[in-house]
Amino acid sequence: PAGKMVDAATARKMLAADPDMLVIDARLAADAKMIPFVLKGARRMLPEQVADAVKALPKGKKALVYCAWGFEIGGNCATALSDSGIDAVAVAGGIGAWRANGLPTEPIPQ
């Protein structure tokens, strides 16, 4: 089952309320190249790296995960994080919905 999803507006409120929340960009490389923007402070993590990367993250942290369009990848990554003790949610609609709502992004750091 896919993880807990929140809409873009809710995700933005969550980030505003918790500046320490981890933000994870779990898009495939091709999707990130197509839309070369990230949410502020996001860590890029390929979907297949999340299970390993989560071991290095502090337990009990909160995380917001997004993918390109908010289907399986974001939800599955949120589930993997949740299974490892991270309180994670995914953005429904992914970065596509985030940008469609006019919410801020920044260029992917080179």
Describe the structure in your own words.
The chain is of the alpha/beta class. Helices cover 35% and strands 20% of the residues. The chain contains five helices and seven strands, in the order βαβαββαβαβαβ. A five-stranded parallel β-sheet has the order 1-6-5-2-4. Strands 3-7 form a two-stranded antiparallel sheet. The chain is globular, with a radius of gyration of 12 Å.
Gyration radius from CA atoms, angstroms: 12 Å
Tally of contiguous helical segments: 5
Regions with little confidence, pLDDT below 50 for 5+ residues: none
Give the spatial strand order of the biggest sheet. Answer: 1-6-5-2-4
Question: Describe the biggest sheet?
Answer: 5 strands, parallel
Shape call: globular
Order of helices and strands: EHEHEEHEHEHE
Estimated structural class: alpha/beta
| First and last CA, distance | 34 Å
Query: In percent, how helical is the residue content?
Result: 25-40%
Strand content: 15-25%
What's the mean pLDDT score? 91
